[in-house]
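Researcher: Please generate the 3D structure of the following complex. Treat every line as part of one assembly.
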Amino acid sequence: DTEVTQTPKHLVMGMTNKKSLKCEQHMGHRAMYWYKQKAKKPPELMFVYSYEKLSINESVPSRFSPECPNSSLLNLHLHALQPEDSALYLCASSQDGTGIEKLFFGSGTQLSVL
Amino acid sequence: QQPVQSPQAVILREGEDAVINCSSSKALYSVHWYRQKHGEAPVFLMILLKGGEQKGHDKISASFNEKKQQSSLYLTASQLSYSGTYFCGTGYTGNQFYFGTGTSLTVIP
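Model: Done. Output below.
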């Protein structure tokens, strides 16, 4: 199984809603990543979990809250988002997070904030 | 910290060649190449780790210069399936993985 699965594929939420994005992999990878991608732009790194510990937080607003319940799962909790947060949210995983192994990406969640 | 790619966009006819460059102001820990089609996830192409390294498969290859500050992706005899946005990427200090600015490549019949 070389897949990273993200759910849901599409999400529409209001600015007062609370929602969560889910990411799952069963490749035994110990590094997992959240990226945000706006149209026609490169993915921007948000968070990195390494061995289930948050190792990188790229100054992301607190309305985004990551969680890594176990080595296979990664969640992104969303609360009080703004319309400018509308984007494609990509999850990725890699073997150890050393920078020398490839990243496997999920197909993403297309988020619209109204 | 983000590597800069050039050109920003390129249009090719089937069968033509292209070169995409990725440059950094400081030495890169490693350089990865990914291709992303519209509405899809990035797909891994290759990784280069050592200065002076060259690597390739089929008609897509890449090089990493000796100082590890520049990488180039070579696409030869382009096919329609090569269309997409190409990103270089690097882990400057391991798990901080950043993508380059991107190059949109369109192959037309």
